[in-house]
Every structure is written in C-alpha cells, then in structure tokens.
Amino acid sequence: MLFILLLFQLASILPLSLFCPSECVCVSDGAVKCTGAITDIPPVDASHTFLLRLNDTSIKILKAQSIQHLTFILRFSITHSSLHTIHAEAFYGASQLRSIMLSYNALSVLPARVFSRLGNLEQLRLEGNQLASVSADIFQGLVNLTELNLSKNQIAKLDANVFQGMTSLNDLNLSGNLLRKLPQTLFHNLVQLKSLILYSNQLETLENGSFDHLPKLLLLMLNKNQIREIPPQLFWHLPSLLTLTLSNNQLQYLPAESFYFLPNITKLTLYNNPLISLSEQLMGHMPRLQELYLYNTNLNTVPWNLFANMTGLRALNFHYNEKLSSLPRDLFCCQTNLQKLSLKYNNLQHLHPDQFSQLVSLKILLLNDNVLQSLSSRIFHNLPNLAKLELSHNHLSYLPGDVFEGADSLQSVTLGHNRWDCVCNIMDFVEWIKKNQRVVTDLDDVKCDEPYRLQNQKLVSLTYDHLRCGITTTSARHEFVTTASVIHSEPPRLRHLPYPSTTRSSQARQDTSIVFPSTPSSASSLSTHSSTETPSSTPLTEEQFYVAIDAFYDTVVFESCPNIVHSNRYKGWVYLWTVPATGLYGGLLLALHIVLIATGIILIVASAYALYHLNKVVWDLGTAVTRNQTIIAKRLPSFKGKR
Question: Options 2.60.120.10, 3.80.10.10, 3.40.50.10540, 3.20.10.10; which CATH number does 16-106 get?
C-alpha cells in the first residue's frame, strides 16, 4: 500500500523534472519562468503550466497559435525582449487566458482584432513598446478586461470608439505618449473606471464633458502636460474622486468653482503652473482633503478663504512661490488638523501676529528662505504641538526672548544665516538660545551681522560685556560746540571720537545717546546726556568732551542727523564728515554732481560718434586702396605688351 502511494507521488513530480527546459525554472504551483537565448515558446509540460513568463529572451516573432497547446495556461508574458511581430492568430485557441503582458519589447504595430477571441482576459499590458497608433477595433470583444496599460509608447491619436466595449475596465494607463487632444466621448462607456492616468503627454486642451460619465473614478492624473486652460465644471461629475493631479502644466488661471462637488478628494496637486491669481470661489467643500501641493507659481497673494473648506487638511505645501510676498491674516483659519505647513522659499516679508493661531495640531512649520524681517512675540504662542521650526536664511535682526514661550514641544529650530543685530536688546533672545542649545540645530550658523566689531560672532557666546550694556554717562549734560564751517564756505571739518565705533540711525541703546541737531545753524552741537538727570548747559573743552564720551565705548547712535554725509575709521578713531543738509554748500555739491554725470555721458556719446566716423573713413580708404591695386594689376600686362 505504501509503495502505491509513493508511485502516485512520483507521478505528480516526474513531469515537472522531466519536461522543464534547461533555460527555465519550473515551480510546483505551475509557474514556469524562462530567460536567455530563447527564440520560440519553450516545450513545457502543458498539463502543469498555468503561468509562463519569458523575460529577457531573443524571441522576435510570436507565431500563429503559439500557445494553443498550453491548455491550462492562464497568464502569459514576454517582457524586455526583442519581440517586434505578433501574428493575427497568435492567441487562437487560448481563450482561457486571464492575463497577457507584452511589456518593454519592440512592438510598433498590432494586428486588428488580435485579442478579439480572449473574452476572459482581465489584464493586458503593452507598456514600453513603440506603438504609434491603435486601431478602433483592436480591443473588440474584451468585455471582461479590468486593466489596460498602453503607457510609454508613441501614440499620438486615439479613435473615439477605441474603448467602447470595455464596460468592465477599472484601470486605464495612457501616460508617456504623444497625445495632444482627447475625443470628448473617449471615456464615456467606461462606467466602472477607477483609475485614469494621462500624465506625461502633450495635452494642450481638454474638452468640456470629457469626464462626465465616470462616477466611480478615484484617480485622475493629468500632470506633466501642456494644458493652458480647463473648461468650467470639468470635474463636477466625479463625486468619488480621491486624487487629482494638475501639476506641471501651463495653467495661468483656473475657472471659478473649478473644484466644487469633490467631497471625497484627499489629494490635490497644482504645483509647477504659472498661476497668476486664484478666484475666491475656487474650492468647494473638501472635508477629506489631506494633501494640497501649491508651489512654484507666480502668485503674489491668495484669497483669504482659499483653504477655508479644507478642514481635514494634514499637509499643506505652499512653497517655492518666488513672488508670494504676503498672506491674508485668516488664511489658516480653519485648519485645526494641519500637521505640516511649508512656506519655505517664498518672498514673505511679514506675518501677522495671529497668522498661525488656529493651527493647534501643527507639528512642522517651514519658514526658511524668505525675507522675514521681524516676528511678533506671540506668533508661535498657540502651537503646543510644534516640534520642528525652520527660520534660517531670512532677514531677521531681532526676536523677542519669549517668542517660543507657547511652543512647549519644540525639538528642532534653525536660526542661521539671518541678519542678527547684536545690541543690548537681543540678550533676552540670546539667553533663550543658551538654555536651548540642543534645540537650535544650526547653532554654529547663528552669528552676528551687526555691529561691525561683532560680525560672525556666535550669538550663543555673547555676554553683556561683549555688548557693553548698562553703561551710563555722568549726571550732568555736557555740550561740545564746534563752529559750522559750511555756512562760512570753509571746507568741511573732521570731527573725531575715540574708540572704533559703529554708526547707526536708530533709537539710543539703554539711556545714553549722542545727539546732532537736525536744524541748520551757525554751530553744530554734539551732546551727551542721561535720560534721568536735569540737563545743564555748561560747555566743555575738547579734552573734557573726550573724557565724557568714554562711557559710550564703541556704539555711537545718531538720533537726528541729516548733516552726516560720510564716516571713516582710522587708527582707532571715527572721523565724521559733516555738512548741513541745506544751504549754499550742499546745493553746490549737488549741482556739481549732476554736472559731472552729464559731462561724462556727453563725453561717452561723443567718443562713440567719433569712433564710428573714424571707422567709416578707414573703411573707405581701405576700399579705395584695394580698388586702385586691382586696376593697376589689370593694366600692368597690357602695358608690358606695348613695351
């Protein structure tokens, strides 16, 4: 009895080992995979072969009834081979086939109705060939086909009825072809279609009503085309749509209400379009939208309600818009579920203090590579879940010390490559940096930009002594009076102050200031005073003035000084060239400047005119000399003959 059982087992195994060609691998579940120098269908065991996969072979022609003898085969494929010809009767006798893959071969033509007898076929893949056209009846009879892939061919035109009988089709891939236009009724019979892929073609326009009969469509990919405009209400009849890609086209405008009646959409891409403006009535009710990509456009601002209907938004990629300089205050009013907001590489200069106040779920905020100059102390206060913040590569010179007070979950901040102004009022922010050095991930790049003496010094290393804060002058007000030289038409004098100094037009630091009067007078006053003391008008000698000014160290602040026209440093001294803003001398300088510029322009024009005429004269002389030499050369033989 045991011997009989062994015989039955051997009988089931022997065909696999005896009838498997040397170039193939035969598996017990009926799969046969062959590769190498095969030029025809290999002689495999028909009774045990359900899948035949021929990959990277030398098969060039698929002959008539090539697989008729494989009575149990369900899946057949020839891929990455030299196949260039298929006989019209190649699949006769194989009506049981469920899948045919002829991908990445050299097919340029398919015989008419070559698949017509495959009524049970569910999958047909022809991508990666050289098909330039598809006949109207090529897919006739494929009533059970659910997947058709014609991508990466050279198809430039499709007949309006080519998909007419394919009522069971779920997935249609036409990407990577040369399609410029689609017939309006091309997809009208594909009522079961769920995925329509049309990217990487050359589509320029879309017909109104092209997608009106696709109620079950979930994926529509139109990116990487040349679409310049879309008709109104193009997507209104796609209630089941989940993903819509319109990126990488030539859209400048979108019709109002373009994205109405898309209640189930979860992903929308509009990036890499030269969009100039967006309508306030553009987006309909989109409670399930989770990803929106709107970058690399020509937008300079957007409507305040653009994202208002996107209450379920999780990721908003609104970056690389080089002209985007401002955002409406309530732009992010309704995104309580937003977790990632990217605003990097825009041209944002200012943000409203409440710009992000509603984003209570936000975890990632990217603001790097803008031109932000300042931020409110409360701008991040209502972001309890914020973990990553990027502020590098902006124009920030100062941040309040409590700017991150409400961001308790902060784990990563970038602050480098800004224009940090290292004066006394920045020390509160410096103290925060010192306490959170592990949070600031680009600590070595957070450096002073001003004043000059502290350039490239790391903020984390600053102290009050570095900034020389908290120093006050004597209690009395001192004045040092010099004679105004301009009114007497004398050359402008040099005023010098001790210590290397940074000259800035801003408010005085601490309680100390140096004041130049803004009203022209016969004398210019330089005064130092304490804000808490009663001023005195006792004049100082020049030597006494230098002693009084020592308390200012190297920061000199001019509150009102229209007469400073130049400053220079030399051997530890700061020299200030002064001239009144109005008066005879200032007017003479301005007139002389204008005369010099006008004279220069006249000389340049005159030189160009002279060079032009000189070149013309030289050309005429050269032409005359050449003409004379030619005449002499012609007459010389006759002259010699006469002699």
Answer: 3.80.10.10
